[in-house]
Amino acid sequence: MEKTKGELLAEKLTRKKKNIYETASAGEKKAIGVFAEEYKYFLDNAKTERESVDFAVEAAEAKGYKPFDGKKKYKAGDKVYLVNRNGSIVLAHLGKKSLEEGIHLSAAHIDCPRLDLKQNPMYEKDGLCYFKTHYYGGIKKYQWTVTPLALHGVIIKSDGTKIKVRIGEEPGDPIFVITDLLPHLAAAQMKKPLFEAFTGEDLNVLIGSEPFEDEKVSEKVKLKILAMLNEKYGVTEEDFNTAELIFTPAAKACDIGFDRALIGGYGHDDRSNSFAALRGLLDLKATPDHTAAVILTDKEEIGSTGNTGLQASYYRHFVEKLCAGAGADPIVCFQNTKCLSADVSTAYDPHYPDVVELQNVGKLHYGGIISKYTGSRGKSDTSDASAETVAYFKTLFDKNGVAWQTGELGKTDVGGGGTVAKYLAHLDIDVIDFGVGVLSMHAPFEVISKADLYMTYKAFNVFNKN
Ligand code: MN
Ligand code: MN
After folding, report:
1. 392-403 confidence digits (pLDDT tens)
2. CA of residue 417 to ligand 2 center, whole Å
3. What is the pTM of this model?
4. What ranges do the domains of the chain cover?
């Protein structure tokens, strides 16, 4: 039947977005699946910023990247990386054009919400032994109880040696847990609002229960564990003062649903975009036109603070040195740099429609989410990309078959959030937020779409190529 005038007009004039699984070719669907497997490997093997930096260094070196030397002159085709204090890393593939024409930059964060050990973490109570924690980032505390936890991090001993800790990730490893009250006795607890039912000081992790056999000792379980740790690592209780130990969920990344189109795992925020951005750069087959760079940064979840967060100067210093070696003006380089601030947004959850505005929320399987602005209460604290910047990326994505959508983090005035975008904007860079949509953001087990992840990777890759 012939289409009516109205139907034809509607086709031409109204906005249309399609589910990637309804439009992707068989070849693309296969690529989506392959990329998801590689990503799950990354999720399981890089659960902290330190481990993510190590992973990035290994992957980059395999592709010919060399440690950055600020005194050297680099030329087109050179590949360098700079590790900043084990917490963040910058990688760059030098392009054919002058650095004064700007860098094509992607910036994602590799820190995730979790439970950090306090400096004096260990105590025994009534025959059971625990680690005290101080949570890191925005969490719903009850979600972190009764979930298997793994211990990651480093201990610096008094003689200066650094011990890497990773317990709860290999088959047969012990894991750790925060216990909760049985429902039979929880009548009073269950009447409390969620944020009162579990406080920060309740996040104590069970680490042992077997007493040391000696009648003369008072804290027998604690002593038994200290003796085991001393035997294994050569550490004493005081060495916890100089440690950076982190409880992450112990769960492995896996497929979700009968159709396996989603990935469940810890830390999609923001390791999904970190991995996509890293691979987008490392998979370049030829020297790019513009210099392509990726920042994997730390401390985003606590405000991009500290000297490994993006409020610090490490990226600026890197570009200044790079420009000095090339005889380029770093100010001009920053002015002409374009950046994808690569972070997750919320994906529409049918069970929580009230907090989002349906016309402006990202949906699973509809591609990477472009957010012109983030922030809260009247765009407060956002960098708000210009229409020109949005247009640049829209055109680039459309030309290269990258599925994308727009999305806002929730209804106006319901809440909101920020990213590293504003700190890059401070450097005089054109920056826009872009990334994968997530269900259950900041929970120990988050959910994303394989198709969205792949399209996000494709976006970084075409951006880096140009
Ligand atoms: Mn994030
Ligand atoms: Mn976050």
Report:
1. 999 999 999 999
2. 8
3. 0.97
4. 16-112+266-465, 114-249
